[in-house]
């Protein structure tokens, strides 16, 4: 069954089309990532799918309900972790959980047990009575995740879940996300501009740019769009023998620095075969390097631009500015 189905979704702000006809579907139990640079339309799409914004055109069905026709039914079945912090900083972690649970009609022992289980899950149980304003950014994000799980959503939306966090905290949050999928078969839709996050977490990735999906597939499928993997060998031996011949070698070029570049389908599989060919031809291998395309190469290949890593910093600055304004 599809947990999310989106057809030709369009969202305009005035005359500006932020989402320009996107279509995709996400299967139940799948982690699906929207990967794209700042301003690509990721947050806008999340806001439409979570019923916070009405689409200008197109159709979106989440957890079996149309986002325009049955917004309340959608809301009951989804959890959201926003890009900007939304927990109450004056309250304790426990109080934040309690209020959120009550909004969803939970109470008594059931609510208390869930809060304990979830705060333990995100390793915040011992800090439950501390006001959130004394939490680090990572602790706040973990609390937001715990809170979003209180009503056992079928589909969880995470908008840039690790933006601005240090590498160790990011790794922790990735573990929680994987555990939610594995232990609860939860469908997770996440947006990110971090390629390692999309690659490390998502079963499938849609690359979004200027409001359009420009490619979709598993990380491996996307990388194949770029074409070959490349092995560079520094060889010692007769020059005319350096372009080793083999049916798995798609191209070979001697570079000005003396290294030889081999285009192959799969570098890991090609390496031992290149070693064999070299020793058979009496050529000695002095140095080996290889390059497998990254998702950045895919983005570059498709758009001619890079997904800029420093976009994260811009976002962090924006978050700081926004929280100062509050
Ligand atoms: N309320 C709004 N009014 C006008 N334009 C908007 C509004 N919200 C977003 N936009 C514009 O729509 C485009 C898409 O924004 P969106 O926030 O969806 O992108 P994003 O991919 O999530 O990027 P980011 O991670 O920076 O939020 C951007 O050009 C943005 O400036």
TrEMBL record:
Annotated GO CC locations: plasma membrane
Gene Ontology molecular function terms on file: ATP binding; ATP hydrolysis activity
Membrane topology note: Peripheral membrane protein
Keyword Cell membrane annotated: yes
Family annotation (PROSITE patterns): ABC_TRANSPORTER_1, ABC_TRANSPORTER_2
Cellular location(s): Cell membrane
Membrane-crossing residue ranges in chain numbering: none
Protein name: ABC transporter ATP-binding protein
Domain ABC transporter: 4-235
Gene3D superfamilies on file: P-loop containing nucleotide triphosphate hydrolases
Annotated GO biological process: daunorubicin transport; doxorubicin transport
Phylogenetic lineage: Archaea, Methanobacteriati, Methanobacteriota, Thermococci, Thermococcales
Family: Belongs to the ABC transporter superfamily. Drug exporter-1 (DrugE1) (TC 3.A.1.105) family.
Highest rank taxon of the organism: Archaea
Signal peptide: none
Annotated keywords: ATP-binding, Cell membrane, Membrane, Nucleotide-binding, Translocase, Transport
Entry keyword annotation includes DNA damage: no
């Amino acid at each position: 069954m599809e947990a999310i189905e989106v057809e030709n979704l369009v969202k305009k702000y005035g005359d500006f089309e932020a989402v320009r006809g996107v279509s995709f579907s996400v299967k139940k139990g799948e982690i699906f990532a929207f990967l794209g640079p700042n301003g690509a339309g990721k947050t806008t799409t999340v806001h439409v799918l979570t019923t916070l914004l009405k689409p200008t055109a197109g159709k979106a069905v989440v957890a079996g309900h149309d986002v325009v026709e049955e917004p309340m039914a959608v809301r009951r079945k989804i959890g959201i972790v926003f890009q900007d912090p939304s927990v109450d900083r004056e309250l304790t972690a426990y109080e934040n959980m309690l209020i959120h649970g009550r909004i969803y009609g939970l109470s008594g022992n059931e609510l208390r047990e869930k809060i304990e289980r979830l705060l333990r899950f995100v390793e915040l149980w011992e800090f439950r009575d501390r006001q959130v304003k004394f939490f680090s950014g990572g602790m706040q994000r973990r609390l937001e995740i715990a809170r979003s799980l209180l009503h056992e959503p079928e589909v969880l939306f995470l908008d840039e879940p690790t933006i601005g966090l240090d590498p160790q905290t990011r790794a922790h949050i990735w573990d929680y996300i994987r555990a939610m999928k594995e232990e609860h078969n939860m469908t997770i839709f996440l947006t990110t501009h971090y390629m390692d996050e999309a690659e490390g977490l998502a079963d499938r990735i849609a690359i979004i740019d200027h409001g359009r999906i420009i490619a979709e597939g598993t990380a491996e499928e996307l990388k194949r769009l770029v074409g070959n993997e490349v092995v560079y060998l520094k060889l010692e031996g007769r020059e005319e023998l350096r372009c080793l011949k083999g049916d798995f070698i798609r191209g070979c070029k001697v570079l000005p620095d003396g290294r030889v570049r081999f285009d192959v389908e799969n570098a890991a599989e090609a390496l031992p075969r290149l070693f064999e060919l070299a020793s058979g031809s009496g050529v000695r291998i002095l140095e080996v390097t290889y390059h497998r395309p990254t998702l950045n190469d895919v983005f570059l290949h498709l758009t001619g631009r890079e997904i800029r890593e420093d976009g994260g910093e811009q976002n962090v600055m924006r978050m700081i500015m926004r929280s100062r304004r509050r």
